[in-house]
Amino acid sequence: MADDSYDDVVNNIAKVMEQLLKNLQVQDLPHIIGCTIIAGSDGRPPTIIMNREGDEIDYEIIDAGDRIYISAEVPADTSGAPSAIIHPDCVTLTFDDQELAIELEHEIDVIHSFYDIRHGVIDVVCYKT
Description:
Layout: H1 6-23, E1 47-50, E2 59-64, E3 67-73, E4 83-86, E5 90-95, E6 98-103, E7 108-118, E8 121-128
Antiparallel strand pairs: 1-2, 2-3, 3-8, 4-5, 5-6, 7-8
C-alpha cells in the first residue's frame, strides 16, 4: 500500500465501526460476521467479481490496485482445516474434498501473498508483480 495520509483515517473509521458493531445488541438486525475496508487503491474504484456460474463455493474477488483480495465462505460441513494454495496465475481453495481453482488476470507475487481464516471466512491477499 502506498504511503497515504488517508490510510490512518480509514483505519480509525474501521476500528470505530468494529467497536460499534460489537456493542450493538439489537435482536432484529442481521448478524455481521466481518467487514473489510480497503484503502490505498490508487484512487480507482476496485473491481469486484462474484462467483462464476456453477461454482459451489461462495466467493468474491476484489482487484484493488496493487493487490487482489479473495474472500470465500468456508462451507459449514468442513471438518478439516481449509487451505489456499497461491500460484503465480491462480489461487486454489481447498475445503475437505472440495476444491475451487480461481484463475487470476494478473501475475501474483507468491512469496509475499498470504491467506487467513477467521469466523468461517477465508481471506487471501495476493500482491501483484
